Automatic annotation (TrEMBL):
Organism: Aerococcus mictus
Name of this chain's protein: Antirestriction protein ArdA
Pfam family of the protein (one): ArdA
UniProt xrefs under Gene3D superfamilies: Antirestriction protein ArdA, domain 1 (3.10.20.480)
Length: 168
């Protein structure tokens, strides 16, 4: 691998007390080596949290990026023969970041997998399409509006049913 992924792993508890205690580690790293590194920087029962203070990588790494995911990525990168293509990708798209899978819901803007499948299948990528419909020139109807009147409830339900039948 031409470019290593190196991170400066820092003890968060000591950092909050005013001490910068950490060390550079090169990924991928074995579990035993990581445990030794944690021991050297004081990650134990008293100080359990760590964060990434600095990094050297062809992509951005956040302070609280999941270390296990990052290590798995480094293992995969070792196996890539076309590393130059990957470097070129990160040069062209420098704002791409690694995200923890726990943040997937935020990344997808709280869409369910079925919502995404429907959008891809029907080419429906305008997120406002679900809320507005045009029934003629100058007539804009809001499907997301709620009316407390019993009189208008059936109209809204009818509009929703028509939209569902139209798009599915």
């Amino acid at each position: 691998m031409e470019q290593e992924i190196r991170i400066y792993l820092t003890n968060l508890g000591k950092y909050n007390e005013g001490y910068l205690i950490g060390e550079w580690i090169t990924l991928p790293i074995s579990d035993d080596e990581l445990a030794e590194s944690f021991e050297r920087i004081g990650i134990n029962e008293h100080y359990e949290e760590y964060f990434i203070t600095d990094y050297e990588a062809p992509f951005e790494i956040g302070e609280y990026t999941n270390l296990e995911s990052l290590n798995n990525l480094a293992c995969e990168l070792e196996d890539i023969e076309e590393y130059e293509l990957l470097e070129q990708y990160f040069e062209e798209y420098p704002d791409d970041r690694l995200y923890d899978m726990d943040e997937l819901d935020e990344i997808l803007y709280e869409f369910t997998p079925m919502d995404i499948v429907r959008m891809v299948h029907f080419g429906d990528f305008n997120f406002n399409d679900d809320y507005f419909t045009f029934d003629g020139y100058g007539n804009l109807e809001s499907v997301s509006s709620y009316s407390a009147d019993k009189h208008n409830d059936y109209i809204i339900k009818d509009q929703l049913n028509n939209l569902v039948n139209e798009y599915i």
